[in-house]
Design goal:
Helix content is 43%, strand content 16%. With 219 residues, the chain is an alpha/beta fold. Strands 1-7-6-2-5-3-4 form a seven-stranded mixed β-sheet, sandwiched between helices. Helix 3 links the parallel strand 3 and strand 4. Helix 4 packs across helix 5 and helix 5 packs across helix 7. The longest helix is centred in the C-terminal third of the chain and has 22 residues. The protein is globular and about 45 Å long.
């Protein structure tokens, strides 16, 4: 449901283009994307649906406090992440079960939004351990995803984000999502986290270059 909704709404907010290193949709694995904006999950879901992929999303548990959104999240089997609680490990167990059942799982390696108020792009920040731990527990490969342009839809403080969403249909900013080649992460949480971060950064750079973003041009 969320994927279908994103595929309907995102084209009205911006001009979404996609690219991939693959010749066909990837087998079920851990989709790892960079996180820059409250709008980018919708952008990524819309891009993935073009490849007939509707993933299980690992998302902050706070989203389940929003009544209508909670219904949609539960309906599609998405997984709440209760950070810094005894229940945090439950999310990885549920995600591993989804992978075993043949679903793709979408996770944000950074686990947070960047602390900046402008709408510019920047390379992904360091990853938390969740991606590496899920890969180790499931044996599944990661599929790196880079998205750029979502900050042109919504970024900054709350008032600016609302204004961005309201004006996006008129501005129609360019959005791009790049899907990279699946890879098996190496052993060791730190080593695996670094490898996943490099792969997602490379995918982000490809996406950002498509939009001519200065951060990617300077990298």
């Amino acid at each position: 449901m969320l994927s279908r909704l994103a595929a309907t709404v995102i084209p009205s907010l911006g001009r979404l283009t996609t690219s991939t290193d693959l010749t066909a949709a990837p087998a079920p694995g851990i989709l790892v994307a960079n996180h820059t904006s409250l709008a980018d999950p919708g952008v990524v879901l819309a891009a993935l649906r073009r490849m007939d992929i509707e993933p299980v999303i690992l998302a902050t548990a706070g989203l389940w406090r929003i009544p209508v959104l909670r219904y949609l999240l539960d309906r599609d089997g998405h997984v709440p992440v209760h950070r810094r609680t005894a229940r945090a490990a439950d999310a990885l167990e549920q995600a591993a079960a989804a992978l075993e059942a043949g679903r793709h799982v979408l996770i944000y390696g950074e686990g947070r939004l960047p602390l900046r108020r402008d709408a510019a792009e920047a390379a992904p920040s360091a990853f938390r351990s969740g991606t590496a731990r899920l890969a180790a527990a499931s044996g599944a490969p990661i599929i790196p995803i880079g998205q750029a342009g979502a900050r042109r839809v919504a970024s900054g403080h709350r008032t600016k984000q609302i204004a961005g969403l309201l004006t996006a249909p008129a501005r129609r900013p360019r959005l791009h999502v790049h899907i990279g080649t699946p890879l098996q992460l190496p052993a060791g949480i730190q080593t695996a986290s670094a490898a996943a971060h490099r792969a997602v950064t490379a995918a982000w750079r490809t996406a950002a270059l498509r939009l001519g973003e200065p951060a990617a041009l300077a990298a």
